Amino acid sequence: MSGTTALELAAAGRAAPRERAAALRRLARRRTALFGAVVVALTVAVALAAPWVAPFDPYAQDLAHRLRPPGWRDPAGGLHVLGTDRAGLYARQDRLDARQARELGRALCQRCAGVPIQHLTGEQAFRRLTLEVRPGVFIPRPETEILVEVALAAVRDVEAPVVVDVGTGTGAIALAIKDERPDATVLATDVAPEAVELARANAARLGLEVDVREGDLLGPLPEELRGWVDLVVSNPPYVPPEEYEDLPPEVKADPPEALLGGTEVYERLAAEAERWLRDGGALAVEIHAEAGETVAGILRRAFMDVRVRQDLAGRDRVVLGWRP
């Protein structure tokens, strides 16, 4: 343990619990980054030597598959820098040629620099869908699938529900709901033009009819839907600004405006949802793990039977409420 680490640990021990936790997270990330840098350096060395030394083993071949640059991805997502699909990748016996090794080495270096793997592959799996992702638009997270699960349950007994996804990003939530409830009328909004463009592209590529509109919260909705919406669902920005510096580089690759937020957005969203939802309609939102009771309290001002749903790790993740 270095002197700096010992001093930081000692300081963390005297700090308040929140500051101590942040200091320990920074130390853990520093060690992980150092270990990761060593692993990546070794992997790059193997990649560059591959054409002359020996064939890649299956692990390295799979790594090459998952790190393929977007330019090498065909429209179906089956071909990549090695010119095969995943099954062919594991059966591959040929050595990488110099070009393939260079492409893999560049991708690995980008990963070492904190570029999200989704920005290298150009895609992200979400429930039953594979979504296109682009820099500048929030990458959907696996934990948001819990929000979709809650949303689908909320309209399980509603015939042909009207659903609105606020802050859609790639369109993940809206498209997943439409995919699993084909009878639903699904609309999505986002304030960022880049997100609107990408969500529309994902909808077109997947053949899912979702009406994506540019604008803030529920403002872009057609007036005739007021009082007829069955479900409003949203994963708004909720990372507290004081936690931003402690986020991993691949998380910081997302736009700050898609990450940073507080309770104000929930207050605005609850107020607007109340005006658009039908009687008995539902509002479901994703939350920061430490904001469960705070957000639930906001919803209880106008909604009934408010519940907090936990994710698979046991952390508060979703708040659901019903319009009286």
Domains (count): 2
| CATH level 4 superfamily of the largest domain | Vaccinia Virus protein VP39
Order of helices and strands: HHHHHHEEHEHEHEEHHHEHEE
Distance between the termini: 58 Å
User: Could you list the spans in which at least 5 consecutive residues all have pLDDT below 50?
Assistant: 1-15, 46-61, 64-81
- The helix tally amounts to 13
Oligomer: single chain
Tell the overall outline: globular
Gyration radius (Cα, Å) is 22 Å
Task: Provide the structure class.
Answer: alpha/beta
Task: Calculate the mean pLDDT score and round it.
Answer: 81
Query: What composes the largest sheet?
Result: 7 strands, mixed
Summarize the amount of helix as a percent range. 40-55%
How large is the share of residues in beta strands? 15-25%
Q: Strand order within the widest sheet?
A: 5-4-3-6-7-9-8
What would you say the CATH architecture of the largest domain is? 3-Layer(aba) Sandwich
CATH fold naming of the largest domain = Rossmann fold
How is this structure best summarized?
With 324 residues, this protein is an alpha/beta fold. Helix content is 45%, strand content 17%.
